[in-house]
Amino acid sequence: MSSDSGPPSLQRRLREEGAFAVVSPHLDDAVLSCGRLLSENPGAHVVTVFSAGPSSVEPLPEWDAASGCFQPGDDVMALRAVEDDRALGLLDARPHRLGFWDVQYREPPERYGRLGGWRRRSRTSRARDARLVAAVGTALESLVAELPLRTWIVPLGLWHADHKCTARACLELAGRWTDRHWVVYEELPYRLEVPDEAAAARHAIESAGFLCRSTELASGESRKAAALQRYVSQIPCLGDRVEAATSGAEVYHELLPAGRPLTTSR
């Protein structure tokens, strides 16, 4: 793993291109992990994968109930989308939502661990996961083809099942869409909580046929903290994680072909 900083040309290229896309597993992840970058680059696009759920949620799953902001029967994800619009509007970012259901609505509680962690996965569950990765990849690929954006900034895929699914789909796209620039971000606050998993995920990317070159894309003061406050329903559950995401450095890695065939055996 190279620890050298990426070339200044990446920052310059982002400025010259005028817009780029950040792929976000959930409605708040882009701001949690890339809020400074978005603040410094108005006009960016944010593509949220798991942005939907049932129109009436009853009973409320653990996370929604703990927020204290929802009642049984609420269209929770529609209410959260309003918060997301406010946060991204503050950063002058353009939202796109793919409409996949958040895992807490896809899976029954006995198969879904608190905050998105997973218990042991059965063969049937793994097959279902693979189908979901393929579906997410197809939806993302349509946007990659449609939007006139050269740079796509995608999650490393830490801890949460939806993050891992999104990361796998993006990595497969990076292997096919080699005329696009691909950059990986380490999700906050997860990268602070599971550093060993972050290192393993970077190694998996290299095993899949890429080099990861660390690069600094965002620093200094920004509207990130103010934007995070727009996610009113998420703040009670995130707790101290909001401050960790606000004060923690945003970490990015430029993906470069390693000169060997790409595999996606992650």
TrEMBL record:
InterPro entries: GlcNAc_PI_deacetylase-related (IPR003737), LmbE-like_dom_sf (IPR024078)
Protein name, as recorded: PIG-L family deacetylase
Organism, as annotated: Acidiferrimicrobium australe
